[in-house]
Amino acid sequence: MMNVKVLRTCVLVTNLVAAAASRATAASCKEMASLRLPNTTITLAESVSTGAFRPERPFDEVPGLVPGYDRLPAFCRVAGTVRPTKDSEIKFEVWMPLTGWNGNFQAVGNGVWSGRIWHPFMARALALGYATANTDTGHEGPGMDGSFALGHPEKVIDYAHRAVHEMTVKSKLIIAAFYGRGPRLSYWNGCSSGGRQG
């Protein structure tokens, strides 16, 4: 009986020490603004209160989609721009729960030609406890407009695969800096263009 109590106490102390050590190496959301990553500028790092997120413009790519922003937990929102070539401008966002992180990362895909961050899809992942990310695939514009590609071969490469790769690599670095450790597991969730991206 005594050995069981000692073992439970040792496990509890070990877990508390590990949690404290992890938090000691983690950073605050505000500190993410000064994070230095290759070819990347962090453009936003802010804590968003429970249910307070409102996008800069409404999401109209999927008619009838109800984003459910008012039910989101508090999170750290980090936005950045990656410029791997002279003609690249890949925007991305990473959302990380302030509490209740499930320890995993879920990147989400886009639809058609994309051209913007797909916040509603990030909201679903965040609500389930994931750290999540999405990219505009390297250009801005309506989902049904592919004119960004004309005369811009680097933007075609960004759209084809580089934007998702850059978003994923940078997001995992941001997650590790914020939580003091990287995700245990990483997932991709997408259909339409998100299926192609996957």
Question: Brief overview, please?
Answer:
The chain is an alpha/beta fold. The chain is built from four helices and six strands, in the order H-E-E-E-E-H-E-H-E-H.
- Determine the strand fraction and express it as a percent band: 15-25%
Give the C-alpha Rg. 19 Å
Structural class of the helix and strand makeup?
alpha/beta
Following the backbone from N to C, one meets helices and strands in this order, namely HEEEEHEHEH
Largest sheet entry: 6 strands, mixed
Task: Enumerate the strands of the largest sheet in spatial order, edge to edge or round the barrel.
Answer: 1-2-3-5-4-6
Helix content: 25-40%
> How many helical elements?
4
Terminal-residue CA separation: 52 Å
Q: How many strand units?
A: 6
Uncertain runs are 2-25
How would you sum up the global shape? globular
Mean pLDDT: 85
